[in-house]
TrEMBL record:
Keywords on record: Membrane, Signal, Transmembrane, Transmembrane helix
UniProt feature coiled coil, ranges: none
Keyword Transmembrane helix among UniProt keywords: yes
Protein name: MYXO-CTERM sorting domain-containing protein
Segments passing through the bilayer: 315-331
Organism name: Archangium lansingense
InterPro entries for the chain: MYXO-CTERM (IPR024038)
Renumbered residue ranges of the record's region Disordered: 135-156
């Protein structure tokens, strides 16, 4: 039998169309971030507050703030309070400025942390000035100052070391959740198509004490396949070893806390998960706990395409095209009745 050219061409065009759809721009390329309203900031409080005493020699200052949207003023990239805040700390005995650095803290309460480059002197008095440098006019609804002034005095001790009051506990369990269909290239996945069985981990972080006495502790949890994540190795280098690298956070005021981690549905293979974890205080001190690798295996919920950047899209498209060509070949070889 001779292969008729028209069906063959139509099939190739359909396969090419499927290939084009599969290789269309990823969500990161198709969904650009719209302009965001510019924010005007005011300061709320400092921790420790004005007049605090017996501050640890390696203590930090935490500054909290409030944000107020500026109507009709937009910017392409969000400007955070970290970008406009300056903090000056002065030794009141000598009048010299104390070198330090600012960094963001996402615990409770969240804010900007000033940390000295070297331990402060014992039994010494210091002053601080926190100021927001903003060129936009102050909106009418804004409340609070744009500068905070205060003093504090140190004690004679450094902060106590971080200490865990137990171990990490992890239990894997199956549960049912809504299932959504994500169209390729769309910025959101809101098309509910039914229910599906997924896997989650019930994580219990232990109590913790020591470190900086302000705010909460932040637990940094990494979930990887087969072997634990290593905090002393850059994440980019570990991507050669791990196909799965998901992170999770939990916060605690020092007491044990339970949190739920839902395993990502975009992996098309089974693996044994490992949990690496550490506690972080507002001063940036860290304490790592012993990693846990449960015996259970996490199985895929299906190949998630469209809403997350999932490896293997090009290979899938190639298989679609190959399948179409094989169908044509089988039709060509089918004997006539």
């Amino acid at each position: 039998m001779r292969l008729k050219p028209l069906p063959f061409v139509v099939c190739l065009l359909q396969a090419a169309l499927l290939l084009a759809v599969s290789l269309r721009a990823s969500p990161a390329e198709a969904c650009s971030q719209p302009p965001v309203p510019r924010t005007y900031y005011t300061l709320a409080e400092s921790i420790p507050g004005d007049g605090a005493s017996n501050v640890p020699l390696d203590g930090v200052l935490l500054f909290t703030s409030r944000g107020w949207a500026l109507e009709g003023i937009f910017e392409d990239a969000h400007t955070g309070v970290h970008d406009v805040l300056t903090v000056t700390v002065t030794d009141l005995d000598t009048g010299e400025l104390v070198p330090g650095q600012l960094r963001s803290w996402w615990g409770t309460p969240s804010g900007e942390v000033w940390q000295p480059n070297a331990p402060l002197l014992p039994n010494r008095s210091y002053s601080f000035v926190a100021a927001l440098q903003q060129s936009d006019p102050r909106p009418g609804q804004a409340q609070g100052p744009t500068e905070l002034h205060g003093t504090f005095s140190t004690g004679e001790q450094l902060s106590p070391p971080l200490e865990f009051l137990g171990e990490l506990d992890v239990e894997l369990e199956s549960f049912e959740q809504d299932k959504y269909h994500c169209d390729p290239g769309m910025c959101s996945c809101d098309n509910k198509v039914g229910r599906e069985v997924a896997t989650r981990a019930r994580i219990r972080v232990p109590g913790v004490q020591g470190g900086s006495p302000i705010g909460s502790y932040d637990f940094d949890i990494w979930v990887t396949d087969n072997t634990p994540y290593r905090f002393d190795v850059p994440a980019q280098e570990q991507r050669r070893e791990h196909k799965v690298m998901d992170s999770w956070r939990a916060q605690s005021a020092g007491e044990p806390v339970e949190t739920l981690f839902v395993f990502h549905g975009g992996y098309d293979f089974s693996y044994k998960p490992c949990f690496a974890w550490r506690a972080v205080d507002p001063a940036g001190r860290t304490l790592e706990g012993a990693p846990i690798c449960p015996k259970e295996t996490v199985h895929p919920r299906g190949f998630a395409f469209g809403c997350s950047v999932t490896p293997g899209t090009e290979g899938t498209a190639f298989l679609v095209l190959l399948g179409a060509l094989l169908t044509v070949w089988r039709v060509r070889r089918r004997p006539m009745a």
